[in-house]
Amino acid sequence: MGVFVSTDDPGPAGHEQVVFCQDRQSGLKAIIGIYSTALGPALGGTRFYPYASEEAALADVLDLSRGMAYKNALAGLDLGGGKAVIWGDPDQVKSEALLRAYGRFVQSLGGRYYTACDVGTYVADMDVIARETRYVTGRSVEHGGAGDSSVLTAWGVFQGRRAAAEHVWGSPSLRGRRVGVAGLGKVGRHLTGHLVDDGAEVVATDVDPRALEWARTNHPGVALVADTAALVAADIDVYAPCALGGALNDDTVPALRARVVAGAANNQLAHPGIEKLLADRGILYAPDYVVNAGGVIQVADEIEGFNFDRAKLRATRIFDTTRQILRLADEEGVPPAVAADRLAERRMADVGRLRAIHLG
Ligand SMILES: NC(=O)c1ccc[n+]([C@@H]2O[C@H](COP(=O)([O-])OP(=O)(O)OC[C@H]3O[C@@H](n4cnc5c(N)ncnc54)[C@H](O)[C@@H]3O)[C@@H](O)[C@H]2O)c1
After folding, report:
1. Residue 82 is inside which H or E element, if any?
2. Cα 151 to ligand 1 centroid, rounded to whole Å
3. Are the beta carbons of 245 and 228 closer than 8 angstroms?
4. Which of 87, 109, 206, 360 has CA atoms 20 to 30 A from the CA of 184?
């Protein structure tokens, strides 16, 4: 283990541990970032991505691992926050040897870090990594894993959205509300099913014609619009970004007609200050990392031996957490995103410090 390229290290921002891993023969270059183990071993996925530079890879892993600490804390998990990046184009360099080399580095951390899927890594990759380490989640059902995490991600988003609806309209039901879903991928499709079942009117868009075809076939009542700009400007009550990050930005927020934003996409706020812009426009934003935690709840359950019903029960509690955050935001006069951060920090401090009690 060691730094594989000399660099002007921007310095870990409060991280416990940052590990550089290299295996020249297989081409593995990975960085594992552990932000906090205050609540337990760090859990977070492995992003396999062709970063432009080592600095970009390092910046991403520092950012993502910090985010996982907050997400896992608010998901009520006994897990800290970590994340890993593998620097390279998965289509060019991903191989059994590379993944297994990576697995051995994960194992070498002795359980301080559990990995999972992220952009560029899939359930099948976790099965390969699991041949070298016990500290992996997101494996296939055949290998004792939790399978596709989008199932409970969508369920959790639906719960968070119900809490937001209750806060704004006094009832959690979405019956008769118009919900705009941007992105009919794995999560967006499950979510659309929950919304339709709850009696909501769904308006949706996707850049992939196959996703639109899926909607026409499975939910002919869903109205399809040309693009995200049309969706944002449509007469909708709730906006659900379920595609890429940065959905809430200087263009979309002023145009948005919805009263509530609650969606699955990570990093929805394009830059600091957007949360205030939303609040100033009277739009309630249910923080992304709170409502999309169902996926990490699903894969974390593997550590105990996967039980879908137990994991679903935990993901259902996203309703209570979202409600608590929205109330705290009102009490403290801050946007929900700030209230969520405060609550996560409080849990990390309050529960994390208990290890100071000597057990004899
Ligand atoms: N899958 C999970 O368990 C999980 C967990 C937490 C967060 N998330 C986040 O939720 C989001 C969706 O995840 P997913 O697993 O469904 O991904 P996915 O790749 O299956 O689906 C994304 C969909 O968005 C569409 N899309 C891309 N750009 C678009 C655009 N400009 N306008 C409209 N549609 C566009 C794609 O065509 C695709 O259908 C991502 O941001 C992901 O990081 C996913």
Report:
1. strand 80-87
2. 13
3. no
4. 87
